[in-house]
Recover the amino acids of this structure.
């Protein structure tokens, strides 16, 4: 059986995504090339181009998968909880996802993927994840005068907190915070302080 006969009915596209995901987690996005994928999957150098217009399109698909996984983690975290409990649960899920998928997480927020003509699936999945976090932040808002308190500021603040915690951890900038459990406790404390 020839290499090209090994993949049919779309299975090469799935194999490209799986192989790219493996490279991503081990070596980072910069290590992913069409030539390498073709070599490792034993197909022609032109074969990846039949499924993805270019490398950016493939990376966008990997990022979309990441956002889908993040959304699922946040949805699972809030299941069965009261709305005012969502934020801390979702915040922990968000941080845990980032720690478990460091290279994919970095790539998900790479500006070059989201700039310009962003693929529709990436736009949809990133919006879904963001809206889940914003909904939880809105549910966790303190009962104050709406004329002096702006929900959008709190919502952006919630995202900045959890995203910032993940990035600071990935860049080894958090000093004495040494374990995942300590980091999750820190996330809880920060969210509770600002949304109490």
């Amino acid at each position: 059986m020839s290499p090209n006969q090994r993949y049919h009915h779309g299975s090469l596209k799935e194999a490209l995504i799986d192989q790219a995901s493996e490279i991503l987690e081990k070596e980072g996005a910069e290590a992913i090339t069409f030539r390498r994928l073709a070599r490792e999957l034993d197909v022609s150098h032109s074969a990846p181009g039949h499924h993805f217009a270019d490398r950016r399109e493939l990376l966008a698909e990997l990022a979309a998968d990441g956002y889908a996984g993040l959304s699922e983690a946040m949805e699972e975290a809030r299941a069965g909880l009261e709305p005012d409990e969502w934020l801390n649960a979702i915040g922990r899920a968000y941080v845990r996802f980032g720690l478990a998928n460091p290279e994919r997480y970095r790539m998900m927020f790479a500006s070059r993927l989201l700039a310009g003509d962003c693929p529709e699936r990436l736009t949809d999945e990133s919006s879904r994840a963001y809206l889940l976090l914003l909904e939880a932040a809105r549910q966790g808002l303190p009962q104050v005068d709406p004329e002096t308190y702006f929900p959008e500021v709190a919502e952006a603040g919630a995202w900045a907190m959890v995203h910032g915690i993940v990035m600071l951890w990935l860049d080894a900038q958090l000093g004495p915070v040494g374990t995942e459990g300590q980091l999750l406790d820190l996330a809880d404390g920060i969210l509770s302080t600002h949304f109490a």
